[in-house]
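Example 3.2
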Amino acid sequence: MQFVQIVEFKTSDIEAMQARGKRYEEETGGGAGSAIFCADRDNPGTFLVIATFPSYEEAMANSEKPETQALAADMMALSDAPPTFRNLDLFDTLGG
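Structure, written as tokens:
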């Protein structure tokens, strides 16, 4: 079953956050899943990452990699508050 993780975070330096994410992608080839990055139109300075993985197990294996651990630490340092996480099992999709 596919796994989706939504991470909501606040930052006043989104450019540095983006640069760190791009560096991670260059170092790892993008990790085990895919992700989209969104800005909350109603809450300036609030952003979301919606990451998808083939399975929960693959997501957790990716999370344990040293490169992913370093990314998480750097992103925490760039955040203005602790992030919130939603861990979801994808059971259906609609549309294209």
